[in-house]
Amino acid sequence: MNALGVDADGLISEEMEAVERVIRSGWWILGEEVNRFEAEWAGYCGVSNAVGVASGMDALIVGLMALGVGPGDEVITTPMTAFATVLAIIRVGASPVLADIDKGNAMLTVESVDRCLSATTKAVILVHLYGQAGPVEELAALCRSQGIHLIEDCAQAHGAMASGSRLGTFGAFAAWSFYPTKNLGAIGDAGAISTVSPDLADRCRVLRNYGQSVRYVHTEYGLNSRLDEVHAAILRCRLRRLDSWNEARQRVAQRYRAGIAHPDVQMLPLPRDPERHVYHLLVVTSSRRDELQRHLAAAGVESLSHYPIPVHLQPPSSSVRRDPVGLAVSEAHARQCLSLPCHPSLTNEQVDFAVSVINSFSIEPR
Ligand SMILES: *Cc1c(COP(=O)(O)O)cnc(C)c1O
User: Are 156 and 280 in contact (CB under 8 A)?
Assistant: First the structure.
């Protein structure tokens, strides 16, 4: 099994050619492959600009810096996310504020964000968790009415759509990660910012390259967060397969949904439209999560939790401002969530096996 889909050999030979092309070109950082990938990625998303950077976390950092978010500003986001989302806010000197999540889909809600607004709120980062579109239309409206920025953390949601548009087109910018396990992944770290604003994109291009506007002229303090040519070349090969990989993930999810029948194992609710979910992760919840995970492991089925410790319970985050009603839903989800095997090259037999193992999980006498 690998992450390269059914035609792994075809893809690998294409990629070897692409890598050789890059090596022979003698130009390895910020060149033609990056330019082309940026144009192709922007085109795929349906925005005018994409800017390649070194990682998903850097995409958030560079985008936040480009928007002028920094010390004295609050940014509202979710505690149920990769730590990188919140770390990016900290790294630009702003203060994260953690809002509780929806009990069903485990993402921010308009109500929880609304509860966390303050006079210093500058932005909201909506994480499209597990590959599902969050309430992006509603949050865009709320942010517009408050005069604050909506930012989409799209690191898990390549290709998902809402109201007929790709995710990553609703806010001031979107941050993408191409970490190898994401729906679109490179062969190392890589990321991108997408935005409808050419000005913001220009600012990101300067910031990712030491704050350099033209060669050896530094108009501000940036960082070194460039996308390598070899990753861009690989991503161009894989982007052509993204839609078919996402369809394969949707089939896997559908098969789990049809097969799982156990009183102590719940699927997350279906999205209101199938195009809203590209199943970066297939997550179930169970009040006996740890026991279920051991039961799966004993049968050779690997599972993980995303995420077992919400951000506010991580050691450095004890004083982070949080939802005035608390974060009980996030804490309950962290205790109950379990991610089942879900990738494009899983066979029906493998899914059926995992389903049969789940369905044979003992039923606790009540
Ligand atoms: C993976 C991920 C990131 C960080 O991306 P990196 O490329 O690993 O820096 C940020 N946010 C979310 C939701 C992620 O899943």
Answer: yes
Tokens matching residue 235: 């991503």
Structural tokens at position 59: 């995409």
C-alpha 60 – ligand 1 centre gap (Å): 9
- Confirm whether pTM is higher than 0.85: yes
Q: How far is the CA of 52 from the centre of ligand 1 (A)?
A: 15
Q: Which residues line ligand 1 (CB under 6 A)?
A: 55-57, 81-82, 84-85, 127, 153, 155-156, 177, 179, 189, 191
Q: Cβ of 78: how many Cβ atoms within 10 Å? A: 31
Distance (Å, rounded) from C-alpha 28 to C-alpha 7?
28
What confidence tens digit (pLDDT) does each residue in 73-107 have? Answer: 999 999 999 999 999 999 999 999 999 999 999 99
- CA 264 – CA 88 distance, rounded (Å): 36
Bridge partners (DSSP) of residue 266 are 285
1 — pLDDT class (breaks 50, 70, 90): very low
